[in-house]
From TrEMBL:
Membrane-crossing segments per the record: 56-82
Protein name (record): Ion transport domain-containing protein
Keyword annotations from UniProtKB, A to Z: Membrane, Transmembrane, Transmembrane helix
Native organism: Octactis speculum
Length: 107
């Protein structure tokens, strides 16, 4: 996989002349980020649509999972504040941490 070369005439980000405290744009970083972006787009184009669709579905599924976990956490928190009885919020915390780790891996 060859990375896609970005053109040399990359326009720098426009900087207001009024703002004197702002540092000049780091051109190397700017170019590198553009390189990375074009490379990832090229990789996406090379992949079969099935793989792309699968990835999107997986990420959506993890987002739904996160929503469910957050809602469960919120409900348990509400129940805990209304009743003074102990709820197993530690279980919810563990599940939340696991879900966050899954999301990080997916991203």
């Amino acid at each position: 996989d060859m990375p896609v070369e970005s053109p040399d005439n990359v326009p720098p980000l426009s900087v207001d002349s009024n703002v004197k405290d702002e540092k000049p744009v780091n051109r190397k970083m700017y170019r590198r980020s553009i390189n990375m972006l074009s490379f990832s787009i090229a990789k996406l184009r090379k992949q079969t649509p099935y793989k792309v669709v699968r990835k999107i579905v997986l990420s959506l599924w993890f987002q739904v999972l996160m929503l469910i976990v957050i809602l469960a956490d919120f409900v348990s928190f509400l129940v805990y504040t209304i009743d003074d009885t102990e709820t197993n919020s530690s279980v919810y915390d563990v599940v939340t941490i696991i879900a966050i780790c899954f999301c990080m891996v997916e991203i």
